[in-house]
Amino acid sequence: MLKKIVQKVKADHVIHCGDFCTSIDQLPDVSMTVVQGNCDWEDAPKESVWEAGRLRFYVTHGHRYQVKTSLLPIRYRVEEVDAHVACFGHSHFPVCEQANGRLFINPGSIAYPRGVRVPSYAVLQTDSTGTVHVKYYTPDGKVIAERGGSFVLF
């Protein structure tokens, strides 16, 4: 399913927040940042920082930061690495919120959503004004209108 989505979206870069639950060489062969989730047996980084233009992304699975309970621990880590955007998973629940000028995104899950009926993934786009636009989609490409938004980070 992930390969089909990646082929359809044609993103400049893909961020996978862990729980890929397969051998890492089975992931799509595209520009990708991937981190190890608590259900992964393959060796992958536990966290990563990726930069695109003026944006700095912090990527982690989230289980080490108790993201099911609060975003406060991951907020501290994002501030430590001076990232603009935090991408995380673990809860399988879509999150898109801004706090202290930083954006926190959980794409949800394309296979095993929790707390929501619809599986999801997120697409982030920037524009020339420095605004970040986040849209959520179902695996078949339908927009999930009640999720996402536009955020000014600079």
From TrEMBL:
Pfam families linked to this entry: Metallophos_2 (PF12850)
Residue ranges constituting the Calcineurin-like phosphoesterase domain according to the UniProt record: 6-128
Molecular function GO terms recorded: hydrolase activity; metal ion binding
Recorded superkingdom: Bacteria
Top EC group: hydrolase
EC number, as in UniProt: 3.1.4.-
Metal-binding recorded as keyword: yes
Keywords: Metal-binding
Necessary cofactors: a divalent metal cation
Assigned protein family: Belongs to the metallophosphoesterase superfamily. YfcE family.
Protein name: Phosphoesterase
